Each structure stands twice: as structure tokens, then as C-alpha cells.
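Deliverable D2.4 — example input (C-alpha cells):
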């Protein structure tokens, strides 16, 4: 028998409170590979830069993860993450259109960038103008193939990562290497491995 309220009426049933379940966001798998164009030092230059980096990092207390000599490079332009064959072919067509002379890259400064991973990098002024001009030419060639137009760019070479110890911009003795080609590189993320897919010779 239903229980009456104070006025002799049967109170309406109380609706059950429905708890909202949090919406689960679909998980997105992290990229496995990154494609990019880069300038890579020759073996002898890479060894010299690696020795220079070892002394520079120790001098300024940078003790994190080093970039090995086989992976030292200056990034020119990003192609994409986990790119398909059509995208890579379009990037290669853009590179095929480049006609540019061999250049020098000279670094005159170093600092830690603001990224959480604490990348410690080499930078330069006029000594990297050739790199900037090559990158601009490649960027517009890529734009003609449907890629985004060139964005703000500061050429640099990453020597290592140390998120616990950051270094303000400092002047260094000039160091660099000659550049006779640029490359399309496939980076295997998390494996510290760069795979050179193709190279283009720089000649006037």
C-alpha cells in the first residue's frame, strides 16, 4: 500500500537521477615516422662537429641526451608525419625543381630553445644566409605542390636535449661545414634513427 503524504495524496514517484558518463575521446596513435628535408654534414665534418659539441656541452653543464654525429643536421622544411606515398612524391617533385649553388653553414651562437625537451642548439647570423635562401626556395617549390607556404624559420643544429638545465644565448667560436647537397630524411620516432631516402646535389 502506498504511503500518503500530509494531505492524503500519494506522492509522485521520484525520478531516478541519471549520472552522466564522461565522454571518452577516441585515442589517436602517436606518429611513427616524420619526413623532412635537411642539410647533413659529411662524415668528417660530422665528426668535427660532434667533438666540438662534446666540449661545448660540458663547458655549459648540459648533460642530457646527445644527438649522435650520424643524426646532426639542419632542418630545411617539414614534409609531414606518417606521410603517404603521394605526399612524399609531391615533396620530391618540389626538390627536383631546385637549382641552387653549394653553400657554407657557419654557426656563431648557442642556446637552449624553449621547448619542454630543452633542445640545445647552434645558431648563426650572416653565416647561415645561404641556408635561409635555400630554405626559402624549397619552401615556395613545396607550396606549388600543395604544401603550406614557408613559415618563420630560424636555421639551427640541435646538439642535445637537457630539460633540467637551460642556457641563455651565448657567443661561440665560429664552427660549420660545407654543404653540397640536401636530403629527404625519414625519422623513425623514438628509435634515434634517420633514414636518408634521397639526396639532391647543389650546383649553380
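Example output (designed residues):
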Amino acid at each position: 500500500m502506498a504511503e500518503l503524504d500530509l494531505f492524503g495524496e500519494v506522492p509522485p514517484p521520484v525520478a531516478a537521477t541519471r549520472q552522466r558518463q564522461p565522454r571518452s575521446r577516441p585515442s589517436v596513435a602517436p606518429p611513427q615516422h616524420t619526413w623532412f628535408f635537411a642539410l647533413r654534414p659529411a662524415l668528417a665534418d660530422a665528426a668535427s662537429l660532434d667533438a666540438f659539441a662534446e666540449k661545448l656541452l660540458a663547458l655549459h653543464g648540459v648533460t642530457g641526451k646527445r644527438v649522435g654525429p650520424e643524426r646532426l643536421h639542419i632542418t630545411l622544411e617539414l614534409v609531414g608525419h606518417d606521410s603517404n606515398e603521394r605526399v612524399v612524391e609531391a615533396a620530391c617533385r618540389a626538390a627536383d625543381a631546385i637549382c641552387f649553388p653549394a653553400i657554407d653553414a657557419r654557426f656563431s651562437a648557442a642556446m637552449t630553445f624553449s621547448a619542454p625537451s630543452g633542445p640545445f642548439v647552434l645558431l648563426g647570423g650572416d653565416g647561415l644566409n645561404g641556408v635561409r635562401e635555400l630554405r626559402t626556395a624549397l619552401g615556395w617549390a613545396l607550396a606549388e605542390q600543395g604544401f603550406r607556404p614557408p613559415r618563420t624559420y630560424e636555421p639551427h643544429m640541435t646538439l642535445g636535449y637537457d630539460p633540467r638545465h637551460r642556457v641563455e644565448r651565448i657567443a661561440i667560436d665560429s664552427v660549420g661545414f660545407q654543404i653540397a647537397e640536401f636530403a629527404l630524411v625519414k625519422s623513425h620516432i623514438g628509435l634515434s634513427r634517420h633514414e636518408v631516402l634521397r639526396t639532391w646535389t647543389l650546383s649553380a
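Helices lie at 43-59, 85-96, 129-144.
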